[in-house]
Amino acid sequence: MFQEEATGQDHRRFIRHSVRGEACLEPLDERLASGQPLQVMLQDIGRTGIKFYVDCALEPGSAWRMKFIRQGFAIGSAPLAIRHCEEVSEGQFHIGAQFMIEPYILNIVGVPEQDLDVDAMDGDHFDESWFTAPDALGA
Fold first, then answer.
1. How many CA atoms lie within 13 A of 49 on its CB side?
2. Contacts of 107 (CB under 8 A, 6+ apart)
3. What does 12-38 look like in DSSP terms, one character per residue?
4. How wide is the angle at C-alpha 87 spanned by C-alphas 116 and 62, nearest 5°?
5. DSSP one-letter code for 104
6. Would you say residue 112 has pLDDT above 70?
7. DSSP state, 114?
8. Which one, of 66, 76, 55, 74, lies nearest residue 27 by Cα?
9. Does the structure show a pLDDT above 50 at 116?
10. Please, which residues have CB within 8 angstroms of residue 9's CB and are 6 or more apart in sequence?
11. What is the model's pTM?
């Protein structure tokens, strides 16, 4: 289904596919909530990550839920961790993010709730077991 990158130049394991579409972001940390979801424009997506544009800076390491929109309706959602934020023009930011396992699933399988808090991260990186990599739960 997913192909591995053929070039050694790119550190990604899976191919990214160019997409154009709408989505919105809602913070998983209620302390970041501003009331309205952030509207984003998608650039590319792959098995483990996504790139998009948004009109405000997002803190690397922060956790969000992306809702994918088609014809005005949410067609799916995924939690993600911001990995990269670069201002490309005034008020326009290019964001790179990595998909995560749903925090409630981690809690159900035994990860303590305090370890699911954004403040419990090691620096600005999540523990690798949080991500939806093929071996994320020892599968």
1. 15
2. 113, 116
3. -SB--EE---EEEEEESSGGG--SSPE
4. 5
5. H
6. yes
7. G
8. 66
9. yes
10. none
11. 0.68
Q: Where are the beta strands (DSSP E) in the chain?
A: 17-18, 22-27, 38-45, 49-54, 63-70, 73-89, 92-99
Rounded to the nearest integer, the mean pLDDT of the chain is 77
Mean pLDDT computed over 97-124: 71
Single-letter residue type at 123: G
Q: What single letter denotes the amino acid at residue 114?
A: Q
Residue type, 121: M
Architecture of domain 17-130: Beta Barrel (2.40)
Task: Write out pLDDT tens, residues 31-40.
Answer: 776 778 999 9
Q: Per-residue pLDDT for 81 more than 90?
A: yes
**What is the distance between the alpha carbons of residues 106 and 102, in angstroms, rounded to a whole number?**
7
Residue type, 112: P
